[in-house]
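Lesson 9: reading folded outputs for more than one chain in a single document. The general rule is that every protein is listed as its sequence immediately followed by its structure tokens, and records are never interleaved. Here is the first one.
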Amino acid sequence: MRMSEDNYQETLSLFLELNQAHISQDLCQEAQLLLKLSNAYYSQNSFEKALDCCNRGLIIGEHPILEKRGNLFAIKTRE
């Protein structure tokens, strides 16, 4: 499935925001953007690609804010 030009530009914009959040160590913003990217890719049946693209170094099990629920990412609930 090929992305439309609008989807491509929106995804590129999200990746740029994600990089900036990562550099700024803004974990909350980073989590929100990862969530948006991964869930958008999953809805296009490309979840594995999203996992690879979003952040190769991110291990969800160890992320302070994100957790994996089924095939989607979610922000961890406070205990």
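And here is the second record, again sequence then tokens.
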Amino acid sequence: MSSSLLNARNPLSFLLRTFTLQRFSTTLTHVSDENKFNATLGTNPSFIHPTAIVHPNAVIGPGVSIGPFCTIGSSAKLGNACQLYPGSHVFGNTELGDQCILMTGAVVGDDLPGRTVIGCNNVIGHHAVVGIKCQDMKYKLGDECFLYVGDNNEIREHTSIHRSSKPSERTVIGDNNLIMGSCHIAHDCKVGNNNIFANNTLLAGHVMVEDYAHTAGAIVVHQFCRIGSFSFVGGGSVVSQDVPKYMMVSGERAELRGLNLEGLRRRGFSVTEIKSLRTAYRKIFMSTEANSGGFEDRLAEVEEHEDLAHVPAILEWLLSHAMIPPLCFQAGLNICMHLTDSYRPCVHPLFLQSY
């Protein structure tokens, strides 16, 4: 029997087949594999691949693209124009802001009590794991735990970022951070804005990183340590003490190596500010210029110095040093290794909000 006769007897099936072919061709024709999801955003309010598993209670914003074999849990919320590449997953009480991208294999959130909140315009790389149970043995199963991530962060492949260890704590990542491949940010860490973590940067629990810090590859930071703003940690370092603002440290047991001069120049510090920081560094840390008083006496001397106290960078530095446990000092320096018990935390505004 001829095909024309079959079409005449079954006009409806013929029309359906023709419409399906046309619809398929207009959706996927002339679209390269790497741009398929971008193309669907322009042709459909939202796109969910037939092989994806999306719970009916999940909230999906307009323009969202969910690729093959993705999983979206019942309490998940996906903001506008998010893109989930094949095999990425969103579990538990997790919220993605607008225009987030989950690359293949990325996992965000889990089914533990608590919450994972990811801001807008974040990229989570291939097989990264963000917002899962911490590795703290003191965590009690069933306790709420939290992770809050700001905007415009790039979290690269195989990175792991854990939720907090207690209901009263938060793991917080700020804005505009580049977290390269295979980094680890443990429970209750506080990371500020505009930081760069090179590959295999490992932060233990409760570590604080302020703003514009830069770590080279394969560094380890001990729990409860603090990395100051505009500082640099050299590759392969083991940081077991606090890194002061503006400083450069390196070594198997990281020691102070001087000012982060190149970093300060790149961040727009003036020549005058850099010279003043260098003078203050010598007065506080260099044994040849250090007076016989304690560390606090030397800080007070710099604060009262006519040529230094008015420099904003110096004042910020002095305030941050009304601080905490030991600093990374140069080996052999005869200075007090412990400071006052007062502590002024530097955290992202997300941490200060009430959830």
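What the second record shows: The chain is about 20% helix and 20% strand.
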